[in-house]
Design brief:
The complex is a heterodimer.
Chain A: H1 2-33, H2 38-43, H3 49-59, H4 65-78, E1 83-84, E2 89-90, H5 91-126, H6 131-143, H7 148-162, H8 178-212, H9 215-222, H10 227-251, H11 253-264, H12 270-280, H13 283-311
Antiparallel strand pairs in A: 1-2
Chain B: H1 7-12, H2 24-51, H3 83-118, H4 121-135, H5 139-150, H6 154-181, H7 184-191, H8 196-232, H9 244-250, H10 260-287
Helix pairs in contact in B: 2-3, 2-10, 3-6, 3-8, 3-10, 4-6, 5-6, 6-8, 7-8, 8-9, 8-10, 9-10
The chains are: A mainly alpha, B mainly alpha.
Chain lengths: ~325, ~290
Amino acid sequence: MRNPILRLLLGRLASGVLTLLIVSLVIFAITSLLPGDAAQQILGQFATPEQVAALRTQLGLDQPALLRYFNWLIGLVSGDLGQSVSNALPVSTLMAGRLPNSLILAGVTTAVSVPIALALGIISAMRRGGAIDRVLNVFTLSMVAVPEFLVATIAVLIFAVHLGWLPALSYVSSVENIGDFMRIYAMPVLTLCCVLIAQMARMTRAALIDQLDSPYIEMAQLKGVGPLRRVLRHALPNSLGPIANAVALSLSYLLGGVIIVETIFNYPGIASLMVDAVANRDLALVQACAMLFCSAYLVLVIAADLCAILSNPRLRT
Amino acid sequence: MSQANSPRAAGSQLPVASPSRRNRAPRHAMRWIGASLFGFWILVAIFGPMLAPHPVGALVGDDMFAGASAAFPLGTDYLGRDMLSRILTGARYTVGLALIAALLASSIGASLGILAALAPKWLDETVSRLNDALISIPSKMLALVMVSAFGASIPLLIITAVLSYAPGAFRISRSLAANLTTLEYVQVARTRGEGRLYIAWAELLPNMIHPVLADMGMRFVFIVLLLSGMSFLGLGVQPPIADLGSLVRENIGGLSEGALAVIAPAVAIGTLTIGANLLIDSLSASRGQQGD
């Protein structure tokens, strides 16, 4: 029994690695094969052809594209991500400085949103069709369609401008105690949570309702099991897999959400580093950040996939 | 990947995930709210620039970030330009670009998806495999990479949105079509000797058009969010043209004083996407889900 599952896990991981390889090829192709030469880009239009040629050699742009791709890939795997053109620093140094901030932001957001979303999802599944469910439905349906900067601007207006409770920008370096920490993270986390909770609650509700519709729940109802017990003891254990799947998938929203949120709150994370890199056309940095985000995304999707498979024997094929 | 879909595909299944049929009355209300919000913005996109009281670029007000007044119902922006005129004009870019991109993404994705379901197995598998790889690039990532390589221009933004969202449409329509191809009437058409294109057009498409359209609606919402997000970052539509996302960006300096010029365009995008989402959800819920 253990063997086929192990084989399945390895198979998923292998297909994940293959996907990541294709993704890296796509990213590399977009950023370096097509027009717009990086050397010309850096030196501007007044550079002499000799200067451009020299820089091209220095950047290795005169080598064939396939060779450059493999060099780049080997660099990625071995942690040598190249030089950032606009900062004259190694890309890995820049990213290492920002990554912890983004991880903290993502971690805090996850810790806040998952319990709330699960509670909301369970409540609305239990009260299906009732007033609470309907209100939550309209609310979550609206929240998943709202741009992050609308939530962020409204949050700044209320908490920073009118109430004056929180600073409008995040200065992570000034964290000295837990109060500072809460004040600084409150608004970025709140903004990210709004959309995340809505999405996760909807998927949790759907997963749970799927179970509540099945015959064994009706059976439990007929033999007199109360509604709370029916949901918590009977339906919930069986929908843990789908719910874990929903949580992992929703969390991958964070990867897009942080881009806007880090920018609007001036938060020094990896996403704002990438946005600056795009504005400066710092391609080595863009490539490395994109690969980091895509890998994180793939990890979440594969985790979601595995949760679904492990919890449902019928999918183990 | 079998059960677990990517979040984008999952996002497009969100309307599916609310199968309660008991609350028909609120569904009706939601449909009307959604339809009127969405319809309002379509009308603004068509007629807005004609109704604008001032030229878009004209410095008409004396104050920057002025509040609402009779002369400027939505106040003025960071240069003293009329916000109402700028929103009426900007909405055309937001709605128009997203509509074009959603139409392209869905029709390209859906036709390739149907054809893949009818194609020989090896071709189907190869294309689906590549498609899965494309799906695993988050849309904002792809957009950032594209803009860093090519710069932001309107055709590039449309191409980027299509590249980001066609793979999701492909996956959904491929699985819908694959389910349909096992049914008798398609088998009969095959036995009759009909060509693949005929089967795709006359047998498959009419039977999956509703979920495909609902999916296109979701893609429209996502593309509005993607493009206005890019404009908000300053990496989307470039000045002097301004869509609603650019309007939020250029006036962000007024946020600390609570300027209407920041709130109004942000709320405009929110009402457009919420309206579209409510409309799609109520339509697909009342129709009863086919497929999936």
